[in-house]
Amino acid sequence: MGGARRRNRRGPTDPGNRAEPISREQRLVTLAVMAGIAVAALNSTIVATAMPTIVGQLGGVGRYGWVFSSYLLAATVTVPIFSKLADTYGRKPIFLIGIGVFVVGSLLCGSATSMGQLIAFRAVQGLGAGALQPIAITIVGDVFEPVQRARIQGLFSSVWGVAAVLGPALGGVLTDTVGWPWVFHVNIPVGAVAAWLLIRHFHEQIHSRPHRLDWLGALTLSAVITVLLLAVTEVGVTAGWSSPGFIALLALAVALLIGFVRIERHAAEPVIDLELVTSRTMAACLALQVLAGVLLFGVQSYVPPMVQGIQGGSALAAGAAVATMSIGWPVAAVLAGRWLVRATSRPPMLLGSVCLLIGSVLLTQIARVDWLPYVMFASTVVGLGLGFLNTAIIVTVQASVEWQRRGVATGLVQFSRTIGGAVGVGLLSGILAASVGPRASDILEPLQRANIPPHELADLSSALGGALTSIYLLFVAVAGVAVLVAWRRAPSIDVTRSTG
To answer: Is residue 7 left, alpha or beta, with left meaning phi > 0 and alpha meaning psi from -120 to 50?
Structure first.
């Protein structure tokens, strides 16, 4: 990759390791971006906490994963589009558009009266979210020089953690008091503050060039993911994994994927830059982000049902179970940021992967260890892994490309994580739907659970617990692959010697 070099060892007092003091303008821009990314952070954790109650009231446990997958699918496909628009028209206007769409989607989600409506409105939220995190990270890359960037990314990444720590607890309180619609409405004031701060304090110099957006590629990619999710979560569950319908949809997904690759090879500006993706540095970073995305959104989605449905906890307890993941994240993010200015990028990537594996193994035992602090500890370890990995990957990627490609490259990082989350959560939803009946929704809502006869409640709990444990075992497999990729392929790059 251009600008990426192996580290020449230097002492900690070497002038090359010193960063210029952060200016007042940089602080204000950082605050604006932090407020914007907090919207996405709150959305992820609050919704995951409230979902058992939402499913209990609206029904549709078989579509549980679609509430997350529709959001992630829309966010995934729009990330490359928004990234290119940001390179053309500037980061600020596109970021503001993303906040506006996200807030509208939040209003619609809070008014949903059926699972189908909620899934559709979550897709609207996802359209806006596709502009938030990648452009926010790109803004940080623009306003800070390389050594500052490595250090500030730890603080910046911790915003996700701090907001997410508040999110599960806030989601539990809102769900148990004023009702689940407010887990969406709370995004509105946060989004308004983010927009105001950005308008007032971010004044960018745009180095623009015209872009040709690859709409055909984006639509084809959307079709690939949608058909695959339909095959696994709907047809495979209802008609069987060997049914003609399932095989036909799987074949269609493969055909669309082949078509997508051909479109990208001939597109003037493809939605996914195959040349960028196939470089050794980017390929390793993106592969790790895909795997991290499965675990990030998987833990957020499938740990709360265990706490609330099997262990009989409240929405607040379910939120606490995953909130600690967001305590580990910022701690590891700050440590990784400091580590990166003294070492190469490989050690924090490897340590992050190992933490993901340890945390996943701990999660497989939460059905046996009916103790909330244990679940919280397991989530904390997973959060440590995500913090080390995310910070190291972002800084490494941004150090490997020039300004004109930084938006696209950063977008690919977000793209890979959300694609992992969208497909991963969707596939896991198929496992859940195939293992439990429609009445499993009832045990996720306290009032309905109280009306289930004891013998039937025991059967439903056993089925749901077994399905969730199977999902946690798959987390272990995913984390194991991440360790292998980090050990064999993680790049050793000195991010302080960046030309980006």
So the answer is: beta
pLDDT in tens, 347-387: 999 999 999 999 999 999 998 888 899 999 999 999 999 99
Instruction: Report yes or no on 8 lying in a domain.
Output: no
The answer to whether residue 244 sits within a structural domain is yes
The token duo for 206 is 């745009």
Rounded CA separation 304/439 (Å): 18
Summarize the confidence of residues 285-310 as an average pLDDT: 90
Q: Considering the entire predicted model, what is its pTM? A: 0.74
The DSSP secondary-structure symbol of 324 reads T
Residue 229 lies inside a defined structural domain of this protein: yes
Between the alpha carbon of residue 262 and those of residues 255, 267, 355, the distances in Å are 11, 9, 38
Range of the domain at 406: 24-203+215-497
Cα separation, 264 vs 241, whole angstroms: 31
CA pseudo-torsion sign 4, 280, 276, 218: negative
**What is the band of 89 on the pLDDT scale with cuts at 50, 70, 90?**
confident
Q: How far apart are the first and last CA of the chain?
A: 11
Neighbours of 181 (CB within 10 A): 18
Query: Is 5 contained in some domain?
Result: no
